[in-house]
Amino acid sequence: MRKAENKIVSANGPLLKFKFDRGSSALPLEGVSGGGDSGGPAYIKANNTNYLLGISSRVEDGSIGKYGVTDVYSRVSLSKSWIENITNEDEGSQLALPKLNTLSTGLTEEILPEVCADIGLRPNAI
Predict the structure, then answer these.
(1) pTM above 0.90, yes or no
(2) What is the pLDDT of residues 68-102, one digit of tens each?
(3) Of 58, 6, 63, the residue nearest 32 (C-alpha)
(4) In CA terms, which of 8, 24, 54, 121 is 20 to 30 Å from 84?
């Protein structure tokens, strides 16, 4: 995992926000996401366990990676039940995907079951 620290400055609704501070306001390893980091984690470590708080989304009030920028994360706790439902092993937990009229280039009906197994989908769910 990357190694940067920050403190949450706002936790309103579905968003968590962090500000990239400098000097005496900064933590020892102060940092925020940079270009290409969208989808990366914001987590807290408690009792030797990492807990996912949010997923990197965008910046406000400045330029990526520059002091003073506000980093915005999507809050995971508000989607916890949906995530657990989608990721559990129950038959009814598959994502609702539209039926395909044609297969993507390179896919054939013969290899579809193997491709689906590789990415964790059941072929009849497509």
Answers:
(1) no
(2) 888 888 998 888 887 777 777 565 555 665 666 77
(3) 6
(4) 8
What gap in Å lies between CA 18 and CA 35, rounded to an integer? Answer: 16
Residues 20 and 68 in one domain: yes
Using DSSP, state whether 26 is helix, strand or coil.
coil
59 and 105 in a common domain:
no
Query: By residue range, what is the domain housing residue 47?
Result: 8-81
Tokens of residue 109, six digits: 């009906």
Cα dist from 87 to 32, 91, 95, 110, whole Å: 28, 11, 9, 27
Domains in the chain, number: 2
25 and 61 part of one domain: yes
